[in-house]
Amino acid sequence: MRRTVTNPDRNITFSQHHVSLQERWQQNGHASGILWFTGLSGSGKTTLALNLERRLFDRGWHACVLDGDNVRHGLSSDLGFSQHDREENIRRIGEVAKLFALSGVIVITAFISPYRSDRDRVRNIAPDMFREVHIDASLEVCERRDPKGLYVKARQGLIADFTGISAPYETPHKPELRVPTQELGIADCLDLLETYAVESFGREG
Ligand SMILES: Nc1ncnc2c1ncn2[C@@H]1O[C@H](COP(=O)(O)OP(=O)(O)O)[C@@H](O)[C@H]1O
Ligand SMILES: [Mg+2]
User: Fold this and answer.
1) What class does CATH assign to 20-204?
2) What is d(CA 107, CA 121) in angstroms, rounded to the nearest whole number?
């Protein structure tokens, strides 16, 4: 049966899928959702997201990374790093992540997403699926790692609105998971993440 919900003011109609989320989970053998990584530049988001995606894939699971730099080449290529543009960037990514999750995929997002209100907005559009994961390292450690040389440039004043230097980072109050990347090595961080993913999505809902 096809059911629709109509918003007459804007002529928008939502069509109801003929495949339920539950059926997708049963077919995939696992549930889906959003692992929302947040943390300073250089904290380890990309490194851990890509390796976690590999581990979940090797289990036969459906997982996909959405990464900051890649999204800014396409979906958000028109946006900069002002508070307004970051807000819009995170809003778009949140909506895309939700669509992926509703299609049965475990989405791992790797964006600094420095503002609490932006992260909370994503949580609010997908409350059952959203898991906030704080990829946690101090500014000092991130600046020492500086894997892309961005902190050096930011200190020289060559990058405006750089998180931690000239723009704020709002630490999550109550993330579902905190991954302390300055205390644990990469393999231990991945074990922590994989265990959490299996606990969260290992049943078919
Ligand atoms: N426990 C750890 N987890 C993740 N990255 C780590 C860890 N320890 C050291 N690193 C290093 O820190 C850097 C993190 O860079 P990256 O993953 O690009 O960060 P981000 O995507 O958050 O900006 C990499 O050079 C990585 O090898
Ligand atoms: Mg990154």
Assistant:
1) alpha beta
2) 17
